[in-house]
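Structure in, sequence out. Go:
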């Protein structure tokens, strides 16, 4: 049953009201405002009937203390008063009281007010629980959305990454080339396409095995990525070929970047299970400007690469 705390300095009043409510409530009593605070803090009743006029701490002051305590702030306080003085009633409401009833009162009126405010209290508690649950669900939804976004981002990165070497794949590079072409047409600047191929790669696979070939590919990718400038891009183009996109880079700049990378590869020590493998690369360069054609420029870079192979490999050629 709901717990009701009756506060009145007149024992006879406590007995009368207690008898009226005992069948429907667990009844607790206090004979002063100070005692009411002590009982309320420990008992946490569902509703409090509080006499306004009492010696010592009056009902209004006791109510104010209850409202300022986090454990009792939500307990409805109904004032019982022998007077209908507006000033006392206003003070009661200002202190946090929810209702008042004037003595003498009819039992049905008292019971109706109590049950109404208990129902309001239950509804508020239910609303609070629902709001908390909604907050929890919202937090859970936000976490799920965040995890979903991260998973989508991981899938996107995976779809654009060469799984063996860890650099971008051909699909990523084609998209990046299209983006750069749009930018070039807007700015009128030139960019450079570079196709680089590992020399004698088949011989490496045939001599040391495909696992060694994978090691060479991964190491070459690391060297290329580390040697590029900020804003440049590298991707595995296919097989042992890599594509370099050099935005806003003219002929001399492309040659400089490619020569630097060629030298780094040539000077790099490739050690595989005790075998020192000498690796070189050939670089073919083609320039792209706003009036050019992407496919034509890529074919020119490929032609430059194979011209470099014909010249003896381990070189940089521009068309």
């Amino acid at each position: 049953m709901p717990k009701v705390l009756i506060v009145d300095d007149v024992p006879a009043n406590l007995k009368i009201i207690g008898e009226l409510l005992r069948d429907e409530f667990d009844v607790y009593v206090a004979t002063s405002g100070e005692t009411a605070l002590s009982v309320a803090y420990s008992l946490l009743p569902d509703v409090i009937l509080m006499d306004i006029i009492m010696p010592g701490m009056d009902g209004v002051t006791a109510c104010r203390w209850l409202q300022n305590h986090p454990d009792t702030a939500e307990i409805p306080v109904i004032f019982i008063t022998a007077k209908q003085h507006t000033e006392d009633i206003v003070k009661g409401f200002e202190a946090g009281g929810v209702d008042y009833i004037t003595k003498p009162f009819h039992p049905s009126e008292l019971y109706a007010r109590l049950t109404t405010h208990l129902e309001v209290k239950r509804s508020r508690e239910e609303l609070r629980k629902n709001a908390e649950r909604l907050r929890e669900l919202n937090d859970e939804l936000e976490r799920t959305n965040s995890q979903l976004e991260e998973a989508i981002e991981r899938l996107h990165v995976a779809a654009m990454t060469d799984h063996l070497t860890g650099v971008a794949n051909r699909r990523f590079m084609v998209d990046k080339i299209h983006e750069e072409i749009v930018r070039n047409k807007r700015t009128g600047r030139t960019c450079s396409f570079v196709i680089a191929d590992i020399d004698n790669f088949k011989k490496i696979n045939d001599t040391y095995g495909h696992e060694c070939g994978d090691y060479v590919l991964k190491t070459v990718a690391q060297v290329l990525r580390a040697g590029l400038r900020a804003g440049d891009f590298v991707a595995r183009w296919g097989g042992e070929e890599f594509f370099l996109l050099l935005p806003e880079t003219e002929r001399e700049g492309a040659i400089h970047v490619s020569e630097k990378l060629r030298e780094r590869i040539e000077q790099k020590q490739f050690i595989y299970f005790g075998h020192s493998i000498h690796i070189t690369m050939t670089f073919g360069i083609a320039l792209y400007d706003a009036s050019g054609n992407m496919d034509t420029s890529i074919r020119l870079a490929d032609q430059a690469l194979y011209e470099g192979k014909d010249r003896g490999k381990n070189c940089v050629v521009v068309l």
